[in-house]
Amino acid sequence: MLRSFAKKLLAALFPPDAVCCSCGREAVVDERGLCPDCAAGIEVFNDAPILKDIDGYTAPYVYNDVSARMVKRLKYGGA
Ligand SMILES: [Zn+2]
């Protein structure tokens, strides 16, 4: 009984299937909220410019189709 409750609790807290934050498909997503296809297409921005007078903002990802869809879904609620 305790094992069943623990499984239900974990499934509620960490659902195995969710909606990808880039393409919007239901899929198993990674810790960034990306399905495997989108995760393969995202590029981390390793050489972000350092702006001396501005702090607190930087681009985490290179702007490409995957990151553009993420921004559009965030801003407009869909792709
Ligand atoms: Zn996706």
Pattern of helices and strands: HEEHH
User: Gap between N and C termini, in Å?
Assistant: 42 Å
Structural class by sheet pairing and helices:
mainly alpha
What's the tally of helices? 3
What is the approximate shape?
Answer: elongated
The largest sheet has its strands arranged as 1-2
Report on the biggest sheet.
2 strands, antiparallel
Work out the radius of gyration.
Answer: 17 Å
Mean pLDDT: 82
**Low-confidence parts:** none
Range of helix content = 25-40%
Account of the 3D structure:
This protein is mostly helical and 79 residues long. The protein has one domain (2-76). 38% of the residues lie in helices and 5% in strands. It has three helices and two strands. The protein has helices at residues 2-13, 36-41, 65-76, and strands at 18-19, 26-27. Strands 1-2 form a two-stranded antiparallel ribbon. β1 (18-19) and β2 form a beta hairpin. The longest helix has 12 residues, at 2-13. It is elongated, with a radius of gyration of 17 Å. The mean pLDDT is 82. It binds zinc ion. Residues 20, 22-23, 25, 34-35, 37-38 line the site of zinc ion.
Keywords:
two-stranded antiparallel ribbon, single chain, 79 residues, mainly alpha
Topology:
Blueprint: H1 2-13, E1 18-19, E2 26-27, H2 36-41, H3 65-76
Bound molecules: zinc ion.
